[in-house]
Amino acid sequence: MYKGDIIDMHAHIYPQKIADKAVHSIENFYDIYAEGNGTPAMLVENGSRFNVKTFLVHSTATKVEQVTHINDFILTQLQIYPCFVGFGTLHYGMSGEEILKETERIASSGISGVKLHPDCQHFIIDDPIMDNIYSACRDHGLPILIHTGDRRYTNSRPERLAATARRFPNLKFIAAHFGGYSCWDSVKCYEGCDNVWFDTSSSLFKLPAEQAMDLIEFFGPERYFFGTDYPLFGYEKEIARFFALPLDDEKQKSILHDNAAAFLGLNG
Q1: pTM to 2 decimals?
Q2: Considering the domain 6-264, what is its CATH architecture?
Q3: 229-253 per-position pLDDT tens digit
């Protein structure tokens, strides 16, 4: 069993003063009890107990006026916690000029990508209204971590991201939740989308191990990253669920560390 350093590629963080409210909102949205309190300090404290050395952190703007504040918060946390890699946020309600300006600021400030959530931000992945954001991220070399799947909604269906990935072949996407939370039967629609990677977050508690392994083998373990979706899930249970998959040590190492390190440019 792999015993080295771990990279968590999916963790939400919030300022202390709004963390409780944000976590309760997530709990209500997904009808699930969150294991964490949403603060950066708790994330690092808990992760360090399980050899998690790097955390990809982000938050999502549900309103245009939240965008710069959230990106400022992420930048502040990068200064406080050297173990953080930050992804910023954008919103489709911004003007084209605002998107270009904020994307430039993100790219030049040390933020490494952008996180989007179609269901919470109320946009449809393949709606042309999103093209300004996709084009700006592509032009600045910013990968997009995007929530995918949820049988309750159509905004984030895997087929929509697959169509978008084909239209933007030079833009890197991380399709969260094994490529489509609760829509895993549709995930193979990404076949041929070499610019799409996947994370394991918010999946292994519900996705049958046989189906998880089928998807990993179908796309190749090199396309997968480990993620917890903190604060919804904590490290003890998520790491145990991951190790319950019948993966050899080499594949465990790839998913828990090496793939993410290469994707984020952390090697060497």
Answers
A1: 0.97
A2: Alpha-Beta Barrel (3.20)
A3: 999 999 999 999 999 999 999 999 9
